[in-house]
Specification:
Elements: E1 7-14, E2 31-38, H1 45-61, H2 67-74, E3 88-93, E4 100-103, E5 106-109, E6 122-129, E7 132-139, H3 146-165, H4 179-188, H5 202-212, E8 217-221, E9 224-227, H6 228-244, E10 252-256, H7 261-272, E11 276-279, H8 286-295, E12 301-303
Parallel strand pairs: 1-3, 3-6, 10-11, 10-12
Antiparallel strand pairs: 1-2, 4-5, 6-7, 8-9
Helix pairs in contact: 6-7
Amino acid sequence: RYSGQGDICVGSSIANRTQSDLEGMIGFFVNTLALRSDLSGNPSFREVLGRVKETTLSAYDHQLVPFEKVVDRVVETRDMSMSPLFQVMFDLQNTPEEKDVALSNLVVSSYEYTAGTSQFDLTLNAEQRDAVISLDMEYCSALFDKATVVRMLAHYQELLIGIVSNINQKIGSLSMLPATEEHQLLRGFNDTSVSYPLEKTVVDLFEEQVLKSPESIALLFEGEELSYKELDDRSNQLAHYLVSEGVNVDDLVGICLDRSIAMVVGILGILKSGGAYVPMKPDYPASRISHIISDGDIRLVVTDEL
């Protein structure tokens, strides 16, 4: 849902003890699987579950293949700034927990520790104990901050709630925003409704501001600045010129200027003359500018060059 992609590859660890002779042997046999999921076509979650199950079982059948060999065969050019094949890891810890293990005259016990370095961009650890599954997210602090990861976990929880309520929902329809965050995005951040006096034009509102604070800075561009009074004076000069050239109410006047103080003066001057401005970028092809002028029956164009 974050990436908008339908082809997702996630890493996962596997015990890799496929033979009974290895079950009692001490040693590190863990291998890494790259699980590539097909989420195309906006399938239902039930269908996604079936696809992932098929992919996972197929990967289990080939778990003896060293991950390094897979990387050598698949990756042509290594980018050393990221992990190959996948950047997100999922680990399930479901082995029975043994508090104390006796080895002859030795006693082996576990202890809590905190890793200081993340191996992947994101690692979601799921630990199953009896009927409870605990989740823990390890993340690269150079890419994510804690608030982002906490928000991700809240999105994951919301997805799980939606899946449990109806496993046949299309994955594109599953909600991932908690009610509070949805309200903040739709209402808080986007509450842009402002009450404007509909009986007044932009020119009316501008002139009111000129009377309130004539010496305040109205425009600032690349070191050049204009006060409200200066902007009012310059736009008035242009408006008088346009009227003298025959611009009437609702006439179309072209403006072909780069972003600058002159462009704002030009727009405001056209509005004060009673006309409506038609913007044209100076880097438009000459044929396009000619077409705009002809199509709009534009007699005057405000520009800084011919």
